[in-house]
Amino acid sequence: MKATQNPPTTVQVTPADLLRMAALYLRRHGWHQGTYYAKNPNTLTPPACAAGAIGIACAGHTVEHFSQLDPDALADYLAVLGVFVDYLDTTAPMFFIDEDGYLLDEHTSPYSWNDDPARTAEQVITALEAAANEWDSLRTIGGEIR
User: Fold this and answer.
1) Given the DSSP bridges, would you call strands 103-105 and 96-97 parallel, antiparallel or unpaired?
2) Which domain of life is it from (predicted)?
3) Rounded Cα distance, 143 and 146, in Å
4) Crossing angle of the two packed helices 15-29 and 50-59, in degrees rounded to 10
5) Contact, 126 vs 31, CB < 8 A?
6) Handedness of CA 57, 63, 64, 70 (dihedral sign)
7) Could you tell me if 104 and 97 are in contact, meaning their C-beta atoms sit under 8 angstroms apart?
8) How sure is the predictor about 2, in pLDDT bands with cuts at 50, 70 and 90?
């Protein structure tokens, strides 16, 4: 680049980047089950569940419901959550069958998966990082599928 050229002012943040940010948030601030965030009025950075950490990565602050996100952050949140669900579907499928044997949901719920009583913080963090690595392995630098 020549000295007279203007450098790019924006960087494309990928779903993999946001998944890693969510994992880092959990490492730094703690993991939670049952709700998006642990109720603690004394902190702006409460422990979070996987979806809550993804919301923070996308919005930059806690969000009690995805409907509170602005359109750009909402698009990012839904895309990243989709990437995470795709990863969970292939590595830790949890499907719900009704009493008649019919499949109720064909995708693993990140909420139910996070809230499994046997789940650990390290499993959640590792899954977020692994989903990010998988996304990177399937995409080019520009985000196109290889």
Assistant:
1) antiparallel
2) Bacteria
3) 9
4) 120
5) no
6) negative
7) yes
8) low
Find which of 11-20, 33-42, 99-108, 125-134 is predicted with most confidence, using mean pLDDT.
125-134
Greater model confidence, 57 or 140? 57
Strand partners, 103: 97
Q: Write out the chain in H/E/C secondary structure.
A: CCCCCCCCCCCCCCHHHHHHHHHHHHHHHCECCCCCECCCCCCCCCCECHHHHHHHHHHCCCCCCHHHCCHHHHHHHHHHHHHHHHHHHHHCCCCEECCCCCEEECCCCHHHHHHCCCCCHHHHHHHHHHHHHHHHHHECCCCCEC
What tokens were used for 40? 């603690």
Q: From residue 9, give the alpha-carbon distance in Å to each of 6, 37, 52, 137, 143.
A: 8, 33, 29, 26, 19
